[in-house]
Specification:
This protein is mostly helical. It has helices at 11-22, 26-48, 60-67, 71-83, 103-117, 122-145, 148-166, 172-183, 189-208, 217-232, 236-246, 248-258, and strands at 87-90, 94-97. Helix 2 (26-48) crosses helix 4 (71-83), helix 5 (103-117) packs parallel to helix 9 and helix 7 packs antiparallel against helix 10. The longest helix has 24 residues, at 122-145.
Length: 260
Amino acid sequence: MAPGNVTAGGPAAGCAGAALGRSIPPARFSAQARLKALQADIMELILERGLEAGDALPTENELSAELGVGRNTLRESLKVLQALGVIEIRHGFGMFVAPSNFDALADGLTFRGRLSLRHHGQEALQLVEARQALESGLIAGAMDLMTPEGLRAVEDAVLRMEALAGAGEGFDEADAEFHRRLFEPLNNFLLISLLGVFWNVYRRLHMDLAGAEGPCLQGAAALHREIYEAVAAGDAVLAAERLGSHFDAMRRRIAAAVGA
């Protein structure tokens, strides 16, 4: 063979093989797809059997036999479902349908938001926008159902904020209580849980932006006072506007942090 000739086993084939080696092998991709399908099958089994939070799942042996998979493959899928908050594995007791748990969602969103602060900040801004849209969009409905007792609970949270701000202390717990009390009249567990997720993500981003200029404690307390006053006055449009303004400072801080 002449030195410059290229055959199926020559240098060109070696380069192509190296390029293919850097991509995801088809077998690995198929394994991932099978695991995902198995996870879907397990969730479907839970639904078909009418299991509820706290109910026991079949044993590993029973699941392996029913789903036609090996124990190791099954365990990989069960670990993923546990991380997603679908099931709960209690060693020595068995597997159970997990109670409502939004920790995985909060952790994932927090990571994405914090990661974006190291770059362009787009996902952090989107998280702020999502929280604003949720609160501004639902405030009118919450106000329609607000009782005098509920309104006093909202004001109590504001009073705690003002007292803590006056003492130069942070008021994270009072802030969370304020937003929870605002939407408590809707009696929607999923909504309150999602608001809690967004609040926790927002607070973590706030901590990461500690060096960026933000509103002083008194200013932040005053913003919450203005929201309360709009709610107390029954002005849903103004309440929504003031809730929107509540997030403007965070947008400015994100923009300053990423140099936008």
